[in-house]
């Protein structure tokens, strides 16, 4: 079976590749893939903390949490009752038991989320989300479809205003990682509380050797996350911003569900629409997409 359901988790398999996810938050917690130089040996490409809560009591610390409809603490008037990063990552999504594709090239499924009484109590907007997950030999794609299901024909239009982001925890030797190409971009430095404006990135390759929490605006959409011997590339559509986050030891030790030393084993590279708000009119659908690809490795990671 290319998709196996066990309780509230799903595992998709395609050749040597596999991915494992929770319906809670539609959170992918594992992606195993080989590379062309080591075709018989799949290794883990995502980081998930061994202390992550997997019982639905809080968002999962690792993998690919889905951030919607607000990034960080809410700032939009319609989001003010929501928790940091919104409700998509801690709501239970539905799977219809079907595959979208299941052939020689890929396996793909779609999960959905609609307003529940719990969501509507805090967020009184009509919406429909579909999350499409596609696995190929060397790639994992995620795609968030956001539909404004309002039927209002009022003017001005009853727009749905939101932010969305894929909070990728890429398994990587954090102290050797470089993220490119970010040079020349404006970014908001969440670590520098003394400065409220935008900085300009001067580095050709961005590292996370010190605690980093940077929100880059109007970024190119395609990135490489590399370390000596390997890496992951990320290609996106409709996600104009990208966040680079690693807390390093001092802040990392204060994260209750972070395993000891976990910050040494990942870098978060998070494509999203998070500076300002995306707006869609009633009946319209917005689609944000990313594809993570293994860069064929000279050396295997040992993390
Ligand atoms: O995306 C980066 C960030 O917003 C950081 O500021 C950091 O707090 C991180 O997300 C984790 O947030 P969480 O709510 O999962 O603890």
TrEMBL record:
Gene3D superfamilies: 2.70.98.10
EC number: 5.1.3.15
Active site location: 167, 270
Keywords associated with the record: Isomerase
Keyword Cell membrane appears in the UniProt entry: no
Binding annotation for substrate: 61, 84, 89
GO terms for cellular component: cytoplasm
Keyword Isomerase: yes
Function: Catalyzes the interconversion between the alpha and beta anomers from at least three hexose 6-phosphate sugars (Glc6P, Gal6P, and Man6P).
GO terms assigned for molecular function: carbohydrate binding; glucose-6-phosphate 1-epimerase activity
EC class of the enzyme, as a word: isomerase
Name assigned to this protein: Glucose-6-phosphate 1-epimerase
Catalysed conversion reaction: alpha-D-glucose 6-phosphate = beta-D-glucose 6-phosphate
InterPro entries: Aldose_1/G6P_1-epimerase, G6P_1-epimerase, Gal_mutarotase_sf_dom, GH-type_carb-bd
An individual GO BP term: carbohydrate metabolic process
Similarity comment: family membership: Belongs to the glucose-6-phosphate 1-epimerase family.
Organism: Dendrothele bispora (strain CBS 962.96)
PANTHER family: APOSPORY-ASSOCIATED PROTEIN C-RELATED, GLUCOSE-6-PHOSPHATE 1-EPIMERASE
């Amino acid at each position: 079976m290319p998709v196996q359901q066990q309780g509230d988790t799903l595992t998709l398999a395609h050749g040597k590749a596999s991915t494992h996810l929770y319906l809670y938050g539609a959170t992918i917690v594992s992606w195993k893939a080989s590379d062309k130089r080591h075709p018989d040996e799949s290794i883990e490409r995502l980081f998930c903390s061994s202390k992550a809560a997997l019982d639905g009591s809080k968002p999962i610390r690792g993998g690919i949490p889905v951030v919607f409809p607000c990034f960080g603490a809410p700032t939009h008037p319609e989001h003010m009752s929501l928790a940091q990063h919104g409700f998509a990552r801690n709501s239970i999504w539905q799977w219809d038991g079907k595959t979208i594709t299941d052939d020689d090239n890929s396996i793909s499924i779609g999960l959905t989320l609609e307003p529940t009484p719990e969501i509507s109590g805090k967020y009184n907007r009509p919406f429909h989300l579909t999350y499409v997950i596609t696995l190929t030999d060397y790639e994992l794609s995620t795609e968030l479809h956001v539909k404004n299901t309002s039927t209002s024909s009022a003017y001005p239009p009853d727009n749905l205003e939101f932010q969305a982001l894929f909070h990728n925890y890429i398994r990587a030797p954090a102290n050797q990682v470089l993220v490119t190409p970010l040079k020349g971009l404006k970014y908001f430095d969440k670590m520098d509380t003394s400065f409220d404006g935008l900085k300009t990135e001067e580095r050709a390759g961005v590292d996370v050797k010190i605690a980093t929490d940077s929100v880059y605006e109007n970024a190119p959409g395609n990135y490489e996350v590399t370390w000596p011997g390997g890496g992951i590339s990320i290609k996106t559509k409709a996600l104009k911003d990208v966040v680079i986050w690693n807390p390093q030891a001092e802040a990392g030790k204060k994260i209750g569900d972070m395993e000891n030393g976990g910050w040494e084993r990942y870098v978060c590279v998070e494509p999203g629409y998070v500076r300002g708000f995306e707006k869609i009119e009633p009946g319209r659908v917005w689609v944000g997409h990313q594809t993570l690809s293994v860069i064929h490795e000279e050396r295997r990671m040992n993390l």
